[in-house]
Specification:
Blueprint lengths: L1 H7 L15 H14 L7 E5 L7 H4 L3 E4 L5 H11 L4 E7 H7 L1 H9 L5 E6 L2 E2 L5 E2 L23 H8 L3 E6 L3 H13 L4 E6 L3 H5 L7 H11 E3 H4 L11 E8 L5 H11 L13
Parallel strand pairs: 1-2, 1-3, 3-4, 4-8, 7-8, 9-10
Antiparallel strand pairs: 5-6, 7-10
The structure holds iron/sulfur cluster (SF4).
């Protein structure tokens, strides 16, 4: 990590605000390793963040970054991609940001198959604001707003992304950091909406209330509960309890929004050759 910090962090951006043992830094490391491995130039990469602990990463890293409003990162990212389709646009969101206030943006960006790379760091709560219940809080878990255990069922966000039209859907965990890097690379290769959920640990906001304040114990839980998707699918229903699949969950090919847009605008007689050139 030190060399990644030297290469990709803005000078003076440290110290960061993450709690000791938080998984966000591990996921950020996976992202930066992919950028490094693929030799992507910082000028061709845009990272858009919403609001939350995970979105704070955009303040630290030295790419074209935009720190946006709560739940709206995908709307900003869509605008950026439409104006500059040549740029690689990543979106970093937390689970509350992506699935609650930002849920509608997620559905429609996936439906349009916008060529965006979305990374949702799922730590099961709104960590930054004190550990409130999010749509991805597992049922029965204690949070600041569910002290006797959440009575709501957990939203299946990867299932929602797939149903809405995403063409690449995957899951990893903070523990499986190499897999996260590989999935990010596969997501970049997909021309369309790529959605990756990374299950991460929030020892402060979630772990403490659920007797898992030790980050190592949370990583151990990720290791033991995650199964490669191809093995998970063959499990008898009783054995799947408490487990979840990781790896590529869904892949499909479909025209991305920009391809459809350019086709439509050329049928309408527009000049597409100068698109994205701004005021040069
Ligand atoms: Fe990480 Fe949770 Fe602390 Fe936020 S509150 S920085 S998610 S450990």
């Amino acid at each position: 990590m030190p060399e990644l910090i030297m290469d990709y962090f803005r000078p003076g951006s440290l110290p960061h605000m993450w709690c000791p043992g938080c998984g966000t830094g591990i996921v950020l490391q996976s992202f930066l390793r992919t950028v490094q491995r693929m030799g992507l130039s910082r000028d061709e990469v845009v990272v858009v963040g919403g609001i939350g602990c995970s979105a704070r990463a955009v303040s630290y890293i030295d790419f074209n970054t935009v720190h946006t409003t709560h739940g709206r990162a995908l709307a900003f990212a869509t605008g950026i991609k439409l104006a500059r389709p040549d740029l690689l646009v990543f979106v970093l969101m937390g689970d509350g940001d992506a699935s609650a206030i930002g849920g509608n943006h997620l559905i429609h960006a996936a439906r349009r198959n916008m060529d965006l790379n979305v990374l949702v760091i799922n730590n099961s709560v709104y960590g930054m604001t004190g550990g409130q219940c999010s749509p991805l809080t597992p049922a029965g878990s204690k949070t600041a707003t569910s002290p006797y255990g959440s009575m709501e069922r957990q939203l299946n966000l990867t299932g929602l992304a797939e149903a809405a039209g995403a063409t690449f859907v995957a899951r990893s965990t903070a523990y499986h950091s190499r897999l996260t890097s590989d999935l990010i690379e596969q997501g970049i290769a997909n021309k369309g909406f790529s959605f990756i959920e990374v299950i991460s640990q929030c020892p402060t906001g979630f772990g403490r209330k659920n007797k898992m304040a030790d980050p190592a114990a949370m990583l151990q839980w990720q290791k033991q509960s995650a199964l490669p998707a191809e093995k998970f699918i063959d499990l008898p229903p009783g054995d799947a309890k408490g487990k979840f699949p990781i790896g590529v969950l869904y892949k499909n090919q479909a025209p991305d929004f920009m391809e459809m847009y350019l086709g439509m605008s050329s049928r309408a007689g527009c000049d597409n050759d100068n698109r994205g050139k701004g005021n040069e």
